[in-house]
């Protein structure tokens, strides 16, 4: 039983809602029910006497409970005299007083044990994570002298095994001394051969490690596999995030473990809690985070909200056709994660692996990462975020992965939270019995809204820019595409299976380069241009290609803008992907109708495919120029990307050739759903029955000079800007849009 001091301390700070509200009739609200229960043991009729009548149930009134509580705080163990005094003063029997104090002490002890259980469980999780980190550090230790692993085999910590290992090492040391004496002609002392570390050099509980910061190189044409190990064929799809520079940065690993555990706890609660933390919108409206309830429920462990920042919080749940462990493996690999979300992540890299976790389950895996998040519009700046990612397996079929922004060094990362920081965000994954997984995604961030153009602000605040709805929609579309591609029958004509996969790999590289050009990713080293005749709503950039075989050599110019279109997303998407209407806006068609040579489906629906288009012949002469095009559409947007390709290069790819040497300069359109501004919980406008509109992003990448050392002229910039403007106007005229919204 707890001591008097412990009970008094808890009694002074007692809060009935700490563990859960206790029922009055289960604890100290009444006492006669216990008395009656004791009497029932003797209520038998074996001796011929009638059973005793049960005592009438009596509930203490509020005044009595208040007086008993006040006395309990001062003396939890009253003696007989004190009980009689309380009985007289409160008009209760002495037995009732006795039973009330017994029940109250039992309840207090239970609360104490529960509180200790929660605290010890948190400490146990922390110690387990630190133990995994230390084991990883020991297993990956490298000898400073010879560069080989310091611990080549699995370590056993049994005393007998340690003695055997110590004896073996002594024998090796003696042999090394003998060889030194023989060949060097001098004696090697034990002190010089094996200097003992000073006590100050021992292992500290606050382990300070040194991490090598990694940057990002340009395009790499090495082979990269798709998520879940799927490989299209030869060549490259996306650039590997390899280091191009490095510098050392010390940080406290134990502090990161504390942050990871706190972030995981918050993510689980954010995923499971309902009202009042999450408020459901009207009808099928989205959930909105109650910021006041959030502040009462959670405490900030990454610092106060920066001044002027806006909160963005969304939650979405969906069924995804894959096993949970496959998704965990994808999310914990930086390259595969970026491949899975190419229009949302322009670059990603794992800076340091603090713990690789337990086996294939990745339980307690912890890594330090850096990524650039993007929306396909030049009017939304890229969010560059440094964060830790922590994976925890909560049961045999449930995993959770959480991200949270960190600032390792205020001096080295003064601009780390320049425009955004990510609060605990991630997903909870639960395996279901039907080979599906239930995924609950939570996105929570704070960002500087002043850096975002007013046209895109409703989209971001609704969650369809960086929110959970976009992550879930992309995840479902990507895995539907993978399921389609892995099927033995991929639709298409006059091309074998390997050729189709090689074609899809080429299209993936094209779409990735288009997204990187729209978002001005640092992967491709774009230089922004400011020209007087170009409007503020148009972003113009340039770069030089000297040795990348995946695009033409020379000076590449990129131009992009976003405009408001008063038509639905589906209407605009259907028009832009229709090859028969392409001559109404595409300068490459030269006014001629286009036709599809063949198409490879990437998922359900007609709009999710990769196609090869060819212009109609003029005067009986065939054209040698073809167009590679990829299109897709989901609830959070649509994409139409295309690039002119040489017919001979396409034939090589279709015959299972290497697609990495096919030069591409992509252009195209990104369609973002229009969001109604009546409230934050409204769904985006993607239904054809509505007419609020959508946002159209137009982007071109054009080779303006085939000589990389040539100088860029103002005329070239104005030509590309004119092409951008004319394309938008042609789309407007073709759709009979009389009130085309523009960026002001």
TrEMBL record:
Report if keyword Zinc is assigned.
no
* DNA-binding region, residue range(s): 53-112
Q: Which family does it belong to?
A: Belongs to the HD-ZIP homeobox family. Class IV subfamily.
Its Gene Ontology molecular function terms?
A: DNA binding; DNA-binding transcription factor activity, RNA polymerase II-specific; lipid binding
* Localization (cell): Nucleus
Q: What is this protein called?
A: Homeobox domain-containing protein
Species classification: Eukaryota, Viridiplantae, Streptophyta, Embryophyta, Tracheophyta
The protein's predominant localisation is nucleus
| Coiled-coil residue windows | 117-144
């Amino acid at each position: 039983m707890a001591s008097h001091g412990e009970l008094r301390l808890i009694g002074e700070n007692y809060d009935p809602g700490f563990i859960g509200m206790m029922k009055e009739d289960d604890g100290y609200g009444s006492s006669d029910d216990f008395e009656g229960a004791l009497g029932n043991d003797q209520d038998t009729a074996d001796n011929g006497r009638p059973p005793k009548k049960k005592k009438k149930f009596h509930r203490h009134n509020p005044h009595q409970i208040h007086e008993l509580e006040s006395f309990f705080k001062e003396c939890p163990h009253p003696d007989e005299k004190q009980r009689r005094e309380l009985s007289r003063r409160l008009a209760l029997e002495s037995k009732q007083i006795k039973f009330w104090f017994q029940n109250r002490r039992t309840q207090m002890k239970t609360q104490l044990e529960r509180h200790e259980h929660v605290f010890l469980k948190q400490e146990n999780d922390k110690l387990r994570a630190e133990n995994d980190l230390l084991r990883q550090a020991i297993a990956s230790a490298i000898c400073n002298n010879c560069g080989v692993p310091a611990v080549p085999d699995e370590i056993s910590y049994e005393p007998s095994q340690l003695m055997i290992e110590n004896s073996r090492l002594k024998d090796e040391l003696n042999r090394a001394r003998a060889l030194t004496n023989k060949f060097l002609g001098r004696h090697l002392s034990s002190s010089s051969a094996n200097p003992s570390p000073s006590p100050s050099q021992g292992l500290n509980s606050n382990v300070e490690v040194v991490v090598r910061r990694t940057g990002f190189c340009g395009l790499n044409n090495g082979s990269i596999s798709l998520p879940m190990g799927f490989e299209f064929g030869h060549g490259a799809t996306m650039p590997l995030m390899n280091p191009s520079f490095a510098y050392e940065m010390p940080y406290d690993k134990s502090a990161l473990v504390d942050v990871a555990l706190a972030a995981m706890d918050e993510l689980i609660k954010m995923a499971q809690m309902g009202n009042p933390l999450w408020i459901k919108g009207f009808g099928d409206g989205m959930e909105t985070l109650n910021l006041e309830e959030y502040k009462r429920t959670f405490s900030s462990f990454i610092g106060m909200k920066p001044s002027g920042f806006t909160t963005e919080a969304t939650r979405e749940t969906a069924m995804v056709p894959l096993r949970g462990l496959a998704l965990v493996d994808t999310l914990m690999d930086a390259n595969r994660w970026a491949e899975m979300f190419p229009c949302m992540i322009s670059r990603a890299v794992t800076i340091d692996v603090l713990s690789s976790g337990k086996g294939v389950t990745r339980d307690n895996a912890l890594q330090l990462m850096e990524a650039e998040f993007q929306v396909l519009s030049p009017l939304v700046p890229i969010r560059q975020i440094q964060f830790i990612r922590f994976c925890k397996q909560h049961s045999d079929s449930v995993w959770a992965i959480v991200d949270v922004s960190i600032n390792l060094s205020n001096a080295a990362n003064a601009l780390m939270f320049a425009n955004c920081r990510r609060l605990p965000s991630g997903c909870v994954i639960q395996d279901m019995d039907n080979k599906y997984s239930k995924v609950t995604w939570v996105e929570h961030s704070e960002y500087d809204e002043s850096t975002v153009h007013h046209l895109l602000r409703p989209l971001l605040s609704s969650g369809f820019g960086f929110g959970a709805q976009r992550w879930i929609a992309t995840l479902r579309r990507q895995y539907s595409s993978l399921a389609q591609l892995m099927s033995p029958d991929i639709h298409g004509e006059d091309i074998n299976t390997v050729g189709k996969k090689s074609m899809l790999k080429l299209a993936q590289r094209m779409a990735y380069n288009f997204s990187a050009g729209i978002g001005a990713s640092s992967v491709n080293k774009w230089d922004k241009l400011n020209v007087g005749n170009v409007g503020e709503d148009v972003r113009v950039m340039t770069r030089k290609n000297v040795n990348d075989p995946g695009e033409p050599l020379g000076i590449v110019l990129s131009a992009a803008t976003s405009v408001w279109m008063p038509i639905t997303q589906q209407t605009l998407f259907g028009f832009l992907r229709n090859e028969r209407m392409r001559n109404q806006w595409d300068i490459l068609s030269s006014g001629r109708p286009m036709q599809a040579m063949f198409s490879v489906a990437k998922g359900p629906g007609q709009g999710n495919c990769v196609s090869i288009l060819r212009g109609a012949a003029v005067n009986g002469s065939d054209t040698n120029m073809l167009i590679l095009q990829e299109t897709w559409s989901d609830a959070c947007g649509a994409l139409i990307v295309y690039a002119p390709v040489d017919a001979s290069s396409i034939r090589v790819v279709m015959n299972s050739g290497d697609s990495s040497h096919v030069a591409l300069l992509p252009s195209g359109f990104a369609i973002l759903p229009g969001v109604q501004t009546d409230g934050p919980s409204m769904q985006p406008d993607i239904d054809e029955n509505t007419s609020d509109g959508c946002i159209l992003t137009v982007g071109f990448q054009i080779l303006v000079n085939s000589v990389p050392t040539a100088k860029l002229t103002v005329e070239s910039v104005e030509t590309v800007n004119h092409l951008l403007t004319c394309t938008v106007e042609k789309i407007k005229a073709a759709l009979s849009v009389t009130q085309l919204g523009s960026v002001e």
